Each structure stands twice: as C-alpha cells, then as structure tokens.
Amino acid sequence: MQKVIYTNQIQEYSKYIDQAVIDYIAEGQTETYESFDSFHLIAFDWYDIEDNTVPPTQILIYFDKDDLFFMCENETTYRIVTKNFSTDPSNEHSLYLFFRNLFKGGIAQLERIEGVVSLLDDDVMDGTEDGLREKLISLRKDILRAKKYYQQLRLLFEDICDNDNNLFTKDGLTDFEILRNRAVRLSTQAMELKDYIFQVFGSYQTQIGLEQNNLMKIFTLVTSIFMPLTLIAGWYGMNLQMPEFKWKYGYIFVAGISVLVCIIWILIFKKKKWYT
User: Fold this and answer.
1) Domain presence at residue 39
2) Were both Cys, which of 150, 178, 220, 227 would link to 186 (CB 3.0–4.6 Å)?
C-alpha cells in the first residue's frame, strides 16, 4: 500500500504497520533516518526555500517491501507531500520520485539568488544606498535556509545508500545515489553562496567604514579651520583694553589674520592631499 496520511491517523493503519512501530512514532522519537530489520523510518524537515517566512514542517515516511506511508503533521505538509507524490508499482521507486520532485526548481532558485547577490555586490561597490543592509540580511537568511535543507537531504540519502537492512534493490540504490549526488551539488552550491553573501556583507561593512572615515575627515578639516578662528574670536571677545581696539585698522587687521589662517590651512590640506 502507498498512502499519504496525517500523523494522527496512523492508528487506523495498524494492519500494515506494527503497533510497536506506531507507538514508537507517536512518542516522537524518530530520528532523521532509522533502519530496522524489515522497515525504514525517515524523518526530515521540509523547507520552503522560496519563502523564508514559511516555518519548516516535518515529513515522516514509513517504508518496507510492501508498504509506503507518508505521515504529515499538518495541512501544509499534507499539501506538499500530495503535490510531489507519484504512485508507482515499486515502493522504492515511488519514494525516489517523491524526493526527485522535491528537488525541482532548486537549481533555478539558487541561481536566481546568486544573480541577486551579484547585483547587490555591484550596489555595494557603488555606495551604501538605503535598504541595502536589509536586502543582504534577507538574502543571507534565504541562503542559510537552503544550505540547511540540502545538507539535511544529503545526509539522509547517504544513510539510505548504506542500505544496512538490504531492503533496497540494486536499481533502487542507483536511484538514491542519483538523489545523493544532486543533494551534494545543491548543498555545495548553497555553501558557495553562503561564502559569497558573507563576502558581500564584509564589503558592505568596509564601505560603511570608508564613508564614516570620509565624514570624519570632513569634520576634522572644518574643525581645523575654525579652531584658530574661534581662538581669535575668543581673544578679542575679552573685556580688556587691547591696543588694537583704538587702531583704525584693527578690524581689517583681525579680518586679514582670519583669512590668512584659512588660506594656510587650505594649503596644508592640499599639500598633504587630505582632500582626496
């Protein structure tokens, strides 16, 4: 029998699944992959790699020579399994077709993400526009989600290919080796994207630092020019009887000194190339 059911319906199929196995599943003790003498238990989390707002949901699979049950914990899982499940006279081939369907669109999605990361990399080189950091963080979440998903499937298929209880035929193992290789390629591509997005994020942080340094340079230049002028203003702002106050050229003299100070600082900045 091949059937997609809800987890809470498992007791209805005690004719096909031993009661001890049903109790074991009900206790929630299933690991990613467990191989018993006459059956396999497969549990993995399904991720929507196109929408990181959708929480992961667990899919539990019972497989033996005669039966194949997909047990779903909620309506979302049931919909996903039903969409990707294809019946076949062979249980192991039906299982293979299910996982093959899960992989559809994976490469295209990762390539799309890579294209977006590349565009953001160009944007970082052009400057730190508003919202760029949020875009990078969102993409990083998408990439890490895909990496976790495909690494999980890769480990799962590696365990299946070990075929400890010899339930899978030679042809079945060939099918799952194909799935394992595909999972390896996808997880490797996701890892490379993770390194790429972290590199872009590092470039973004560097660009932010450069812009802050340029801003501090401007503040330093302005402060350097106005500090001597502030000193002159403070000096002549004191309530003291200075000789210059009675000199008819005193105002022009102070103004000239102020202009001269500005010119000297500008020449110093230019000589040291602080403008660039």
Assistant:
1) yes
2) 150
User: Domain range holding 40?
Assistant: 1-87
Give the pLDDT confidence of 147-180 residue by residue, as tens digits: 888 888 888 888 888 877 777 888 888 888 998 9
pLDDT digits (tens, 9 = 90+) for 264-276: 877 877 777 765 5
Q: Kindly provide the b/e burial profile for residues 228-245, where b requires at least 16 CB atoms within 10 angstroms of the residue's own CB.
A: beeeeeeeeeeeeeeeee
Confidence (pLDDT) at 129: 63
Helices 91-102 and 170-236 pack at an angle, to 10 degrees, of 20
Q: Which of 32, 53, 87 is the last residue of a domain?
A: 87
Amino acid letter, residue 169: T
Residue 260: give its domain's CATH number.
1.20.58
What's the CA gap between 157 and 152, in Å, rounded?
A: 9
CA pseudo-torsion sign 50, 103, 196, 117: negative
Give 5-64 as a DSSP string: EEGGGGGGGTTTS-HHHHHHHHTT---SEEE-SS-EEEEEEE--TT-TTSPPEEEEEEE-
Q: How confident is the model at residue 28 (pLDDT cuts 50, 70, 90)?
A: low
Q: Is residue 276 part of a domain?
A: no
Assess whether pLDDT exceeds 80 at residue 103: yes
Q: Residue 169: phi, psi to the nearest 5? A: -80, 175
Please tell me the distance from the alpha carbon of residue 97 to that of residue 103, in angstroms, as a whole number.
10
Coil, strand or helix: which one is 70?
A: strand
